[in-house]
Amino acid sequence: MADTTTKDSQPAAAPQTSALKSFLSGGFGGICLVAAGHPLDLIKVRLQTSNQYKGMVDCARQTMAKEGVRGLYRGMATPLIGVTPTFSVCFWGYDLGKKIARSVGGNGPNDQLSLTQIGFAGAFSAIPTTLLMTPMERIKCVLQVQTAGNMKYAGPVDAAKGIIAESGVKGLFTGTTATLMRDGIGSVGYFVAYEGIKRALTPEGAKPEDLSPLAVFMAGGMAGMANWAVAIPLDVLKSRLQTAPPGTYSGVRDVLVKTVQQEGVSALFRGLGPAMVRAFPANAACFLGVEVSLKIMNSLW
Ligand SMILES: CC(=O)O[C@H](CC(=O)[O-])C[N+](C)(C)C
């Protein structure tokens, strides 16, 4: 089994990727993530807002029977427009983080980065990603908590205009610290799990980048689950900060204290089930999309 912890004398270093290829492959991975994850997200929202379904399978069956397979992809344009650039920036930031780790750690071009260095690069990727992620999540969360009969905004553009009218452009950035903390910690779990599992699955003497699509799919799915396993408490705090009326909380510490005092620690794990059910297929498809598009680009130029 490949050594997963040291940076020295590794025969299996991945070739360094250009920033543009990382950006493009990340965007393609984001498209794959939405395509694979959207049906589960739609089922989750329909279950949350209607009593006509007996469960996830029944909801999928009824949706397909009445609306065809296309029904499962209703409303996919909005996440596609938001997630694609966010994942481009995330994978570009991860690539930049790996280059910084390589130069700080003095790794040669053929040395494999240690998992600590991978964790640093993952955390680093959250810095630029947060600039896009925060307003996207703010608008998404505000729309997701609207209920029938209490609809404040008609859609994402209307919500963005409403938030700006109420609190200025800075209103779109409510929850920035919580988003940075969530994705900083989440991205360490995400990329360390992905690289670690890929290395563990790589036979002695082989290279992780030559793993089968099935192995990439499994490592990607597990990486998505690792992301949510460590990020869910901060995701709960972020969602509460982003959907509360202005002035309810003074910051991350305040929402943490109030949540735990009023509802107990278990409140920090709400939504873990649906997040995990979506995480495996969505992120398996994402990493497969990233690796396949990188291979195609590498063969072209
Ligand atoms: C919160 C989020 O976007 O997590 C990503 C995985 C997912 O399931 O969407 C990973 N990452 C934070 C690295 C973009």
UniProtKB/TrEMBL annotation:
Start and stop residues of the Solcar repeats: 17-100, 113-200, 211-296
Membrane topology of the entry: Multi-pass membrane protein
Any one GO MF annotation of this record: O-acyl-L-carnitine transmembrane transporter activity
Biological processes, Gene Ontology terms: carnitine transmembrane transport; mitochondrial transport
GO cellular component terms attached to this protein's record: mitochondrial membrane
Signal sequence residues: none
Residue stretches spanning the membrane: 71-94, 114-134
InterPro entries tied to this protein: MCP_dom_sf, MCP_transmembrane, Mitochondrial_Carrier
Chief location category: mitochondrion
Subcellular location as annotated: Mitochondrion membrane
Keywords attached to this entry: Membrane, Mitochondrion, Repeat, Transmembrane, Transmembrane helix, Transport
Transmembrane helix is among the record's keywords: yes
Family under the similarity heading: Belongs to the mitochondrial carrier (TC 2.A.29) family.
Name the UniProt record assigns to this protein: Mitochondrial carnitine/acylcarnitine carrier protein
Gene source species: Allomyces macrogynus (strain ATCC 38327)
